[in-house]
Amino acid sequence: MKYFIIAGEPSGDLHGSKLMQGIAHEDSNAQFCFCGGDRMIEVGGEQGLVKHYKEMSFFGFMQVLKNLKTIFLQIDECKHAIEQFNPDVIILIDYPSFNMRIAKWAHKKGIKVYYYIAPKVWAWKEWRVKSIRKYVDKVYTIFPFETEYFKGKGIQTTFCGNPLVDDIDQMRSKLPSREQFITQNNLDSRPIVALLAGSRISEIKANLPDMVALAKLFPNYQFIVTAVPWIDKSLYDSYLCGSDVKYLSNQTQQTLAHAEAAVVTSGTATLETALMGIPEMVVYHVPKLYEVLRPYVLKIPYISLVNINLNREAVREMVCAKLNIDDAATELRSILKGGSKREKMLQDFAELSALIGGCGASQRFATEIVKTLK
């Protein structure tokens, strides 16, 4: 069968590649055409690529507004490629602003549409539920609570686990020892605290200054900012200059694995940290206006996927326009070794792992998709 897959950012590229591997295992005649990145190219070949996500990633209202013409041209390009490929199904991966336009168009054309890693309509923009119900044939969720949410909205939904579990499991098998990690990266012997400041320029600008200020209060620990490779080092350097905070690029999981605790922005990183069993706190700088409007625009009480899945505050969320550094320092001490909250948090993480499910999610999703199509 023929599969057209659309991923518009790095995480979608990763999950898309694993899904493609699973589909190829289930369907020996599988043909792929896709918008994605290098990981999906490794599976589907350069000839299958329609558009690289690096050309498609526009974040924030102003950036989207300035690039509207480009975005609409890319949507038209994608539609043309779909018509040329004539797929049995279109599989959309997150990236809702782009993908929902494709879903509406494909539905009118009579093309089957599946959504893998659904838009977070349970948190904001709930009006999209109506469009998903109308234009998407089936939703494949990666969180148990999402399944109940979408089913309650009359949407056909399947949960097979979370592919992040497979990523972590594969990483552990290749993990260097602490001594090797320290030597390879010119680190010292102090305990490590990982700083996950985000994957977008705006997030780093907003959150890294607070994280650096916090690090200065803990001279007996070495703080490492886990940089993403697609953002220039100079941006990080502008905030790290004059501090003792170390910079490591493209080594987030390796750094977390050897960390005693972590300070994390939000998003998937909070879940990844928890599933690796690393106590964490969430620090997220927001504009004052958002702080005021948050109860009205956010449909849920939490921003971290740990708390959302457990439906309680297992990790502290400090989401504010101005961070109280002393309060943040107290929180960090409570999750370091010997801290008052550490053991309870680790118990909560064990509960979360059981809830999310074990390894093999990508293959289970692929099996379910191929079976449903057949």
Protein model, in words:
The chain is of the alpha/beta class. The protein is built from 18 helices and 13 strands. The chain has helices at 10-26, 38-44, 61-66, 68-85, 96-109, 128-135, 144-152, 164-173, 178-184, 201-215, 233-240, 252-257, 268-275, 288-297, 305-310, 325-335, 342-356, 361-373, and strands at 2-7, 31-36, 49-52, 89-93, 113-116, 138-141, 157-159, 192-196, 222-227, 246-249, 259-264, 280-285, 317-320. The strands form 2 sheets. A 7-stranded parallel beta sheet has the order 3-2-1-4-5-6-7, sandwiched between helices. Strands 10-9-8-11-12-13 form a 6-stranded parallel beta sheet, with helices on both faces. α11 links the parallel β9 (222-227) and β10. α1 (10-26) packs parallel to α2, α1 (10-26) packs across α18 (361-373) and α10 packs parallel to α11. The protein is globular and about 60 Å long. The relative contact order is 0.11. The mean pLDDT is 91.
Give the proportion of residues in helices.
40-55%
Extended strand count: 13
Across the major sheet, the strand order is 3-2-1-4-5-6-7
Strand content: 15-25%
The end-to-end span amounts to 9 Å
Structural class: alpha/beta
Shape: globular
Radius of gyration: 21 Å
Q: Show unreliable segments.
A: none
Mean pLDDT comes to 91
- Figure out the total of helices: 18
Q: Biggest sheet, in brief?
A: 7 strands, parallel
Please write out the topology.
Blueprint: E1 2-7, H1 10-26, E2 31-36, H2 38-44, E3 49-52, H3 61-66, H4 68-85, E4 89-93, H5 96-109, E5 113-116, H6 128-135, E6 138-141, H7 144-152, E7 157-159, H8 164-173, H9 178-184, E8 192-196, H10 201-215, E9 222-227, H11 233-240, E10 246-249, H12 252-257, E11 259-264, H13 268-275, E12 280-285, H14 288-297, H15 305-310, E13 317-320, H16 325-335, H17 342-356, H18 361-373
Helix pairs in contact: 1-2, 1-18, 4-5, 5-6, 10-11
